[in-house]
Amino acid sequence: MRYFVESYGCTMNYGEGGRLSEDMSAMGHEAVPCAESADIVILNTCTVVDTTEKKMIRRMSELRKAGKEVVVTGCMAKVQANRIMIRLPDPLIIPPDRYSEFSAEIEERYGRGGCCETGTHLTNILPIAQGCLGDCTYCITKLARGRLSSYDPDILVSKFDSIIADGAKEILITAQDTGCYGADIGTDLPSLLGRMLESDAEFRIRIGMMNPDSLMPIADRLMGIMKDPRVYKFLHIPVQSGSDAVLKRMNRSYSAGDFLGLVEKVRSGCPGLSISTDLMSGFPGETDKDHRMSLGLVEALKADTVNITRFSPRPGTEAALMESVHGRISKDRSAELTETKNRVEYENNRMVVGRVEKALITETGKESTMIARTDNYRPVAVPSRLPVGSFVSVEITGCEPTYLLGRVLDSRR
Questions:
Q1: CA–CA dist 119, 166 (Å, integer)
Q2: What is the 3-state secondary structure (H, E, C) of the chain?
Q3: Distance in angstroms (rounded) separating the CA atoms of residues 278 and 49
């Protein structure tokens, strides 16, 4: 049968979607480029905020109306199976903690196919764990993913080597909280990355999101790992708020000062490091003073990327029972945070104009451009048609708040 894996949400979910696609192909089913061409759609869901949940529900109705066989995976499959069953007749629901049974359940319902075709992905996502060690009051993902369960490092290294041997040039190492990898099995992230870097091949590793408290114990060793030019000088460290009072209600086990001190430390240990962070506006109990503290943190941090989200109460979480901030206030605060972060990001990017950077072509952009990633993972739009996977020298010629503009000086495969 023809299949399509339609993933939503975090990098980890996309990585798991890739693994599910491999399982489908291994059973002889044929991958197709879109849901419209598929007999079976693997709907790999996300439910992190209310708007995403509603989008998933709408998509289920659309696929049902189109007569598709729908297999539901991802976080909704674990925590909101009842909502799925309302929208889909007799659905096959396989949550993340049952992915080891995915092939058997697919084969039981749909049998095996006769296609043996496989493809090479120049960018590949490698999930390294399920769950995390946190207990954030707003997070529904912890209900879907559970406590930390790290994958065997020998299996991960073998998979990494296989990905490289198949021609991948960019590998995204990811988990719900990448920094806590191995805490449950007596190892850690720097040890895993060190083994992966024993390869002689040329590639780029991007380290996935990690919470501040999971980064703190491994920061020194991780900075040593990032001296290898094949590791992007990039860290995604979500702070969520600039107010200690809000962080306490979120049950985040650090202060805003701890976070800024950590960023100073990793920047010192890895010059040129690009920092990405997340901020939430309108968390229950957030005051105007708390909001101003978050604005001040954006100004002080000068991150290259700040992702702003508005608080959305999720069923089953502690924060859903807290007194909410009025939607208009939350919206206004989100807009002010976005305006501030756009200005800061533009100023950061403006300082890079004129430099020559080594970069990897990772995808096709808009209007006859390609997107290249510099050594610190900053995106550069270049008006050239070059093969994905090419390493190039790029002169930065301009910028926007969220990306750079450049021209290619030379390229090599």
A1: 9
A2: CEEEEEECCCHHHHHHHHHHHHHHHHCCCEECCCHHHCCEEEEEECCCCHHHHHHHHHHHHHHHHCCCEEEEEEHHHHHCHHHHHHHCCCCEECCHHHHHHHHHHHHHHHCCCCCCCCCCCCEEEEECEECECCCCCCCCHHHHHCECEECCHHHHHHHHHHHHHCCCCEEEEECCCHHHCCCCCCCCHHHHHHHHCCCCCCCEEEECCCCHHHHHHHHHHHHHHCCCCCECCEEECCCECCCHHHHHHHCCCCCHHHHHHHHHHHHHHCCCCEEEEEEEECCCCCCHHHHHHHHHHHHHHCCCEEEEEECCCCCCCHHHHCCCCCHHHHHHHHHHHHHHHHHHHHHHHHCCCCCEEEEEEEEECCCCCEEEEECCCCEEEECCCCCCCCEEEEEEEEECCCCEEEEEEEEEC
A3: 14
Give me the pLDDT at residue 412, please.
Answer: 61
Distance CA 258, CA 36 (A): 49
C-alpha to C-alpha distance for 350 and 385, rounded to whole angstroms: 25
Q: Which two tokens stand for residue 89?
A: 């007749």
246 vs 249: CA distance, rounded Å: 5
92-93 and 305-310 beta bridge pairing: unpaired
* Mean of pLDDT values over 112-121: 65
Question: Is the distance from CB of 157 to CB of 195 less than 8 angstroms?
Answer: yes
pTM attached to this predicted model: 0.91
Where residue 112 falls among pLDDT bands split at 50, 70, 90?
confident
Give the residue-averaged pLDDT of 41-68.
Answer: 94
Do residues 118 and 25 make contact, with C-beta atoms less than 8 angstroms apart?
yes
| Phi, psi dihedral angles at 386 (to 5 degrees) | -130, 155
Measured CA to CA in angstroms, residue 314 lies from 46, 87, 100, 139, 302 at distances of 12, 20, 27, 7, 30
Residue among 262, 261, 301, 249 nearest 278 (CA):
301
Q: What is the mean pLDDT of residues 323-348?
A: 96
User: Minimal CA–CA distance to 133: which of 245, 253, 49, 236?
Assistant: 253
Task: Show the domains of the chain with their CATH numbers.
Answer: 2-110 (3.40.50.12160), 123-350 (3.80.30.20), 356-412 (2.40.50.140)
pLDDT single digits (tens) 16-38 = 999 999 999 989 999 999 999 99
